[in-house]
Amino acid sequence: MPGGRASDRAYEALRDEILQWRLAPGTVLGEVEQAARLGVSRTPLREALSRLSAEGLVEAQSGRGLVVSSVDIADVRGLFELREALETAAAALAAERRDEAVFAELAAEFDGAVDLVRAHELEAYYGLVARFDEAIDTSIGNAAFASALRGVRTHLQRIRRLAQDDPARLERAAAEHRLIAEAIRDGDSDLARHATAVHLHASLRHILEATAS
Fold first, then answer.
1. Looking at the chain, which terminus has fewer C-beta neighbours within 10 angstroms, N or C?
2. Burial of 11 (C-beta count, 10 Å sphere; 0-12/13-18/19+)
């Protein structure tokens, strides 16, 4: 397997495991063990670890080498401030530049997302949310903007897992996403911006309440 493809495969596998908490914060990522586990050589593994380090998902720890980085709930407010600034602007731009059919389909899917939550098909639900984010990124047509959004979403995805999967909150979130998708579909920038802000405020409140000691 060419080094580049092996590196990409290792990166995607490790990133997914970190975001899904299958590799918990503090887990040591020894080169020999991880290379053997993932079926790649150490050179592509190092490339993958370097990318994860740049994203803040992996960090060097004295005496232990590279480990999965810690998650500090104290940082969540700051992350949400940044996310709100970016996501509300992105939703407004998407409403101006959207493919109407794409967001019409997404709005229809969110209308049925409650069934996914009630059936405990949470990976399908989160997959729908990811496709919605990707559609917004595609619509705004700004690579630097989309890269900044992905960076913030990555860290908040880990924090969201701390809050657990509360079905009642997910049902409300599905309705909030549907409203945003409908606003973008209709080209209503103001509503898209406002609905996104409401959704993010509700998400922050839920995370803070769920992780309160």
1. C
2. buried
Residue with tokens 């908490």: 21
Contacts of residue 15, defined as CB under 8 A and 6 or more positions apart, other chains included, come to: 52, 55, 57
Domain boundaries, the chain: 3-68, 73-210
Asked if residue 154 lies in contact with residue 19, where contact means CB atoms within 8 angstroms, the answer is yes
Do residues 140 and 93 make contact, with C-beta atoms less than 8 angstroms apart?
yes
> Is the separation of the CB atoms in 30 and 69 below 8 Å?
no
**CA 208 – CA 211 distance, rounded (Å):** 5
What pTM does this model have? Answer: 0.82
CATH topology for 3-68 is Arc Repressor Mutant, subunit A (1.10.10)
Query: Could you tell me the sign of the dihedral formed by the alpha carbons of 149, 155, 156, 161, in that order?
Result: positive
Considering the domain delimited by 73-210, tell me its CATH architecture: Up-down Bundle (1.20)
